[in-house]
Design goal:
Blueprint lengths: L6 E3 L2 E3 L1 H16 L3 H11 L7 H17 L29 H15 L3 H7 L8 H11 L7 H11 L4 H13 L5 E6 L2 E6 L12 H14 L4 H18 L3 H7 L6 H16 L19 H17 L6
Antiparallel strand pairs: 1-2, 3-4
Helix pairs in contact: 1-2, 2-3, 6-8, 7-8, 8-10, 9-10, 9-12, 12-13
Length: 318
């Protein structure tokens, strides 16, 4: 067996039949919707240096898809119990690096081994022939590299025309990761929004406290009656940040006072039940939500505002 027939990482060899074994395990994770385990396994496989480029691209695309559709997997630890030992490589260390570190290492390896790798990523943003999916994958990789031309190329692409909200948000995050600062004009929702790069949230912990509190209240109030809504609320929160960032709705929610959090959470729950989860909406009793009669008109306004936004911008869940 030649060296090219093996996968090697830190002197640990994974044979071709082991690749098949793990791909079968990966398929089983997808079949039962165990997405966190799938993401952990993909991150582990991407550590091996001499993977066939086509296979690596396939794994990277799957990982990006998981992180896009199920953002919570980005924060899931890599559980060594998910990687059953197959007799051909060592057990994982207890101080296993984070998924972000693993991805950075994998991309650093490609930069070192593949001449023109960064230039190929940047080419995606110089031509309009690439699909949004290809642009998203390139953005996810570019955030981990440093290149003198990257900021200007990405800023030109971002400001030239309206882009998908998720792509806009990922591009702003990449600019912040590169430690750029200052105001940038972004075409969005039929006009221009002016944003400061350094204010872009890289995770939910960097979102305005009032927005975090609204979604936390949504989780708490949904746990008993609507467990599916509570389960997906974290994912919806992160997708909401990407789609709403820079809009008037986002700015209004960022200024919500603590005594109005329940009001917004109640209206948000009603909208998500109807539009996202296709649940029949019964007549809302605001008293059951801990609200008062004088809140009803404001609740209706917020409900209408959120309903319009989610109808126009938020991708529906089947």
């Amino acid at each position: 067996m030649t060296k090219q027939d093996e996968l090697v990482h830190d002197n640990v060899v994974m044979l071709p039949q082991t690749v098949k074994y793990y791909e079968d395990q990966l398929a089983s994770y997808f079949k039962v919707e165990r997405y966190e385990q799938a993401a952990g396994l993909l991150a582990h496989l991407l550590q091996f240096s001499n993977v066939d480029p086509a296979k690596r691209d396939e794994w990277e695309m799957l990982l990006v898809w998981l992180q896009t559709m199920f953002p919570e997997v980005m924060f899931a630890p890599l559980d060594s119990s998910n990687l059953e030992r197959n007799g051909e490589f060592e057990e994982m260390e207890e101080d296993e690096p984070s998924e972000e570190e693993l991805r950075r290492q994998a991309i650093d390896t490609r930069v070192q081994q593949e001449q023109g790798y960064i230039d190929n990523l940047l080419q995606v943003f110089k031509e309009e022939s690439y699909s949004p999916q290809e642009q998203l994958i390139a953005l996810e990789k570019l955030a981990f590299v440093h290149h003198s031309d990257a900021p200007n190329i990405l800023m030109h692409w971002l400001t030239a025309e309206v882009r998908h909200p998720l792509l806009q948000f990922r591009a702003l995050q990449a600019l912040k990761i590169w430690e750029l600062q200052g105001e940038i004009r972004v075409p969005k929702l039929g006009g221009d929004v002016h944003l400061r790069i350094e204010d872009t949230p890289l995770g939910s912990e960097e979102m305005p406290a009032s927005i975090r509190d609204i979604f936390q209240q949504l989780r708490v109030s949904s746990e008993e009656k609507y467990p599916d809504l509570a389960q997906f609320s974290t994912q919806i929160e992160r997708e909401f940040a990407a789609f709403a960032y820079g809009t008037e709705l986002y700015e209004e929610m960022a200024q919500v006072s603590a005594d109005r959090t329940q009001l917004w959470a109640s209206a948000l729950q009603d909208v998500l039940q109807e539009l996202i989860f296709k649940m029949p909406v019964v007549s809302m009793d605001i008293y059951d939500q801990g609200l008062h009669e004088q809140d009803e008109k404001e609740w209706e306004r917020i409900r209408s505002l959120l309903g319009q936004f989610f109808t126009e911008q938020f991708p529906p869940h089947s």
